[in-house]
Design a protein that fits this description.
This protein is α/β, with parallel strands linked by helices and 294 residues long. The chain is 48% helix and 22% strand. It has helices at residues 4-8, 19-32, 46-53, 69-79, 94-102, 115-167, 187-191, 212-223, 270-293; strands spanning 12-15, 37-40, 57-61, 87-91, 107-110, 170-175, 180-184, 228-236, 242-253, 259-268.
Length: 294
């Protein structure tokens, strides 16, 4: 809502070729507390004045020599590209009222003036105009905020992906049907997936080498939309060696809580597992030697 002081500070232009009419309206507005009033008897100057000052309300007489109010409104239409003319027309001709509204005027007052009615129409028009401007400014701020937040999210996503690529061997995303939509790193190779192209790949298209029980457990996690952390599985390579892979994943949901797929990261932990196995073997060997000494 607007404060009364905001309305009284609205920029008003009075346009009439009759000085008496201008003085009457100006005095009425000053008595009502309006603080920013400009007047002119030259209709040809109105467009330039509005271009420079962007008045919140223009009180415009229609019957003027050389250039009437309709011609003035034609010129104002080229300035107000949004199509909103802050014009309150003044006319003594009832037939001109409809034409003025069709030309873009927002309201009208009749001559001779009913000062109470004129004050009310001016107040209402200024209130609507200023609220319209506030809404427009709010939308611009909102649009700017959205652009800034979008840029921040994109930067954050880029940082996340960069961190993910540095800390893991691969990253992947799947849609709700199990089709891979985004991959980074040797995803298909690590998962043992046979694929012609990414759009046709799914988590079900698995080649040999997996441990059947581990594969079934991972599939059950994904089918149940269960997040999993550091899931360890093995794969037998063609050369007979055993490969250890570690994967973490989580289900994704949209703003309406609808499941839209999975995303996750993976690591090849073969070297680590072999090192741990070797340490365990040495430890067991030392324990066995201690037993023999005893």
């Amino acid at each position: 809502m607007l404060e009364a002081s905001e309305i009284l500070k609205g920029r008003i232009l009075i346009v009439d070729d009759q000085e008496d009419n201008i003085m009457l309206l100006e005095q009425m507005l000053q008595n009502a507390g309006y603080q920013n009033i400009t007047t002119t008897t030259d209709p040809s100057a109105v467009c330039a004045m509005h271009q420079a000052h962007r008045y919140d309300l223009i009180l415009l007489d229609l019957q003027m020599p050389d250039m009437d109010g309709f011609q003035v409104m034609d010129g104002l239409q080229k300035i107000e590209t949004t199509g909103y003319l802050p014009v309150l027309v003044i006319t003594a001709q009832p037939a001109h009222k409809l034409r003025a509204l069709q030309a873009g005027a927002k309201d009208f007052v009749s001559k001779p003036f009913d000062l109470v009615e004129v004050q009310m129409r001016i107040h209402n028009m200024l209130e609507v105009r200023l609220l319209h401007q506030k809404l427009d400014n709010y939308n611009k701020v909102l649009e700017q905020t959205v652009e800034e937040r979008t840029a921040e999210l994109r930067a954050s996503e880029a940082r996340f992906r960069s961190f993910t690529e540095l800390s893991t061997d691969w990253y992947w995303e799947q849609d709700e049907f199990g089709k891979f939509t985004k991959v980074s790193g040797p995803v298909f190779e690590m998962l043992g997936i046979k694929v012609g192209d990414m759009s046709g790949a799914s988590s079900d298209a698995v080649a040999g080498g997996w441990d059947a029980i581990e594969h079934a457990q991972l599939k059950a996690n994904i089918a149940g939309r269960i997040p999993f952390l550091d899931f360890l599985y093995t794969r037998n390579n063609l050369d007979g060696t055993l490969e250890y892979l570690q994967v973490s994943g989580e289900p994704m949901f949209d703003s309406g809580c609808r499941f839209i797929g999975y995303r996750g990261v993976g690591l090849n932990v073969t070297e680590r597992m072999r090192d741990e196995a070797e340490k365990m073997r040495l430890r067991n060997g030392m324990n066995e030697a201690d037993k023999n000494v005893d």
